[in-house]
Design brief:
249 residues, 46% strand, mainly beta, 6-stranded mixed sheet, 5-stranded mixed sheet, 2 helices
């Protein structure tokens, strides 16, 4: 009996110290709380990793024993769980529901010191109401042999926002925004005729910053960001939206 007890304790201890990490297919780390935003819909008839709405997910296991992974749908906004594709080895589903877990029949097993390959992904083809963003909050977590959650978890947000397709300076003007320049060094400077919120996204659709602005002169500090292309989106308190590409030197 003592040996069985010791073995059980060791198993639980091993699972509790198992570490799950995630990356996109291009190697970009996926961190707990990350938001991935897309301005296009996936093609439901031809979903491939080259689809601009495709979020490929690689799950890594840094422990010396295999881990059991599941995904739970925490919430959905402006969506009914249809017109999408979610795959986690060994299954793919075209509909999901809040508080449901996947795979429903059993966990996805990631081998010791290994990864799950290139199979797992999430693609949205649901346009929602065509005005407001479609948002899915998904939690990836580990379970032990008894189905109880163990170790760390990673919760991400997949967001489809049609307003993020870049617009022109005339569209910015209609939202009351006068941008100083699209080539910036340490600050994105602009004048506004009303108050609202600015959101800055990187090329992977990850939300970099969200800042309130007021009528008059405003700026967004980007001094700590790497030189790259970003998208800044403006949303006025009246609901008007516009966005533009920014080049950080």
């Amino acid at each position: 009996m003592k040996k069985i007890t010791v073995l059980f304790v060791c198993l639980c201890t091993s699972l509790s110290f198992s570490q799950m990490t995630m990356k996109k297919l291009d190697g970009t780390p996926i961190n707990n709380g990350d938001i991935f935003t897309y301005s296009v819909l996936g093609d439901p008839n031809n979903i491939t990793s080259t689809d601009p709405a495709y979020l490929g997910l690689k799950i890594y296991n840094s422990s010396a024993s295999s881990i059991n992974v599941k995904m739970k749908v925490i919430s959905m906004t402006n969506a009914d769980g249809t017109n999408l594709q979610f795959c986690i080895d060994p299954i793919c589903v075209g509909t999901i529901s809040v508080n449901s877990t996947y795979p429903s029949s059993g966990p996805s097993v990631v081998p010791a010191n290994g990864q799950n390959g290139n199979f797992d992904h999430f693609v949205n083809s649901n346009a929602g109401d065509g005005i407001n963003p479609v948002i899915y909050v998904l939690k990836f977590y580990m379970i032990n042999t008894f189905g109880a959650e163990v170790g760390n978890s990673i919760t991400i947000t997949y967001k489809y926002d049609s307003t993020l397709s870049t617009t022109s300076f005339n569209d910015l003007k209609n939202t009351g925004i006068a941008l100083k320049s699209t080539l910036v060094d340490s600050q994105i400077e602009f004048d506004a005729t009303t108050s609202g919120r600015s959101e800055l996204y990187d090329v992977n659709g990850r939300l970099v910053s969200s800042t309130r602005y007021t009528s008059g002169y405003n700026y967004v500090d980007v001094s700590n960001l790497n030189a790259s292309v970003y998208i800044i989106s403006f949303i006025t308190d009246e609901g008007k939206k516009a966005s533009l590409r920014i080049i950080k030197k």
